[in-house]
What we know:
The chain is an alpha/beta fold.
Amino acid sequence: MTTTWILVANASQAKLYANTGPKKGLQLIKELMHPESREKASGLVSDRPGQMHSPSTGQRASQPKTNPKTNEARLFAQELARELNHGRSSGQVGRLILVAPPAFMGLLNEKLDGPTAHLVSDRFEKDYTKAAEKELAGHLESCIFL
């Protein structure tokens, strides 16, 4: 039987579960935290914008191109994608289910490599990171037989 991994994540925390077949339930494999995503945006950047010099206009302040919180979420999505990519390449997983809020789901999808993305059978655009295992199992019963 193929092992299914279920990633339940948001921008600051994730839980990775495995299901090895019918009536086997969910086994928590790993918990990952990214506390930087919870910080205020002002705490993620330096005190003041950097300076750019333009010969025609003199000096002016530049703003970061990406929102610092979005950048932190993107870094966490990349870390999670590496975990999933490694699971696929090492033969630990044959099927993936992703559960994340819509904005974070987009970041995850963007970071998965092609072969790993093909293992994703189901996506739930919800934040179930605080759900108990039994509640999570109820939400997933349409795609796995627990």
